[in-house]
């Protein structure tokens, strides 16, 4: 038998590799993978975009000392314009921009100033700015981005627990946790109490489900774990920092929570 000719088995294209990785991680099809590097690192915000929304970050733990702290995953998707911060509470975005400092190379697109913003209490607040970074900026920023996502989720969960405890006191309203974006979606009849949500990962081999409680929180399928935000639920299930709005979709029609949130924005802007 003649030796196998590698030319008859071409390597998968970069697009195929990225699509497979997105399906495995349960990320939307329009996501861009920054780490592992599957293409050129974006060094500027595209002309038709405002910023990159962070969708997933994974920093390896200390199980293996040889890999602890390494960036295993960093992905996002481009936002066409600046959305209202009150509807994107807890979202992080990244903006690679031309360097402010004159480097003497005006046409050099291999250096950028990269800023990170967090939607918090109705404002896009700066988390940090890295000046004069090269194409390795995703690896440089990932630990800070992951830490910011973790801190916000922890704060939201603490606030949720305090609200639940308050609502359980005699004479208190059981709806004290109203006012979140999810509860706004429920008020607008874009989602309903008890509705099932699903998130598929590992190329469809893993299927997580949750239901919306009347206070706008997530009850996982185990019937025990409750989370205040879609991102907290997705992060708990995957062990990675995930943007839950782009992960969870409504089981009844397959619409993502991010799309329903965009519809709520469109209604408000009419």
Assess the beta-strand content as a share of residues: 25-35%
* SSE-based structural type: alpha+beta
Number of strands: 12
Q: Indicate the low-confidence ranges by residue numbers.
A: 165-169, 172-178
Distance between the termini: 70 Å
**Which term fits the overall shape?**
globular
Radius of gyration: 21 Å
Instruction: Give the SSE string.
Output: HEEEEEEHHEEEEHEEH
Number of continuous helical runs: 5
Sketch the major β-sheet. Answer: 7 strands, antiparallel
User: Overall pLDDT, averaged?
Assistant: 87
The proportion of residues forming helix, as a percent range, comes to 25-40%
SSE layout and pairing:
Layout: H1 14-25, E1 32-35, E2 51-59, E3 71-79, E4 92-97, E5 112-120, E6 123-133, H2 137-167, H3 181-187, E7 196-201, E8 206-212, E9 218-220, E10 226-227, H4 230-238, E11 241-242, E12 249-250, H5 257-269
Fold and architecture overview:
By secondary structure, the protein is of the alpha+beta class. Helices cover 27% and strands 26% of the residues. It has 5 helices and 12 strands. The strands form 2 sheets. Strands 1, 2, 3, 4, 5, 6 and 11 form a 7-stranded antiparallel sheet that branches. A 5-stranded antiparallel sheet has the order 10-9-8-7-12. β8 (206-212) and β9 form a beta hairpin. The longest helix has 31 residues, at 137-167. The relative contact order is 0.13. Residues 165-169 and 172-178 have low confidence and may be disordered.
